[in-house]
Amino acid sequence: MLGKTVWRLPAGTVDANEKPIFSAQRELREETGLVAKKIKLIRYYEYMGWVKFPIFIFEATGIKKDNQKLDFYEKIKLFKVSKKRAIKIALEEMEEPHHAFALLKVLGGK
């Protein structure tokens, strides 16, 4: 729906012959304009929605700001929210279940 906020985590596909960690670095920079000094895999899940697909959840530290590198059709605005607000977003406002699932897994620490 036009004019509606859609909550998502930085995400994307792993290109052919690309390691997931490099995909995470690329997507973080493209979608958020943030560059991490270190990225570490903290969770891996096989998510079952309409189809089964892998979810790699990374922790990014040593963040510095750079420029977003959005595709022409993308408009992404970043928000910094509290943990309490992030849980509310995941439970009540995220329309894509795999994004809510990933966010809740990270926030719950399990």
Q: What do these coordinates show?
A:
The longest helix has 13 residues, at 20-32. The protein starts with 19 loop residues before the first helix and ends with a helix. A two-stranded antiparallel sheet has the order 1-2. It is α+β, with helices and mostly antiparallel strands and 110 residues long. It has 3 helices and 2 strands, in the order αββαα.
Brief write-up:
By secondary structure, the chain is an alpha+beta fold. It has helices at residues 20-32, 83-93, 97-108, and strands spanning 34-48, 52-65. The protein starts with 19 loop residues before the first helix and ends with a helix.
CATH fold descriptor: Nucleoside Triphosphate Pyrophosphohydrolase
Low-confidence stretches: none
- Principal-axis shape equals globular
CATH class: Alpha Beta
What's the overall average pLDDT, rounded? 90
Strand order, sheet with most strands: 1-2
Number of strands: 2
Q: Write down the secondary-structure element order.
A: HEEHH
Proportion of β residues?
Answer: 25-35%
Question: What topology does this entry show?
Answer:
Blueprint: H1 20-32, E1 34-48, E2 52-65, H2 83-93, H3 97-108
Antiparallel strand pairs: 1-2
Supply the key terms.
single chain; 110 residues; alpha+beta; 26% strand; two-stranded antiparallel ribbon; 2 strands; Nucleoside Triphosphate Pyrophosphohydrolase
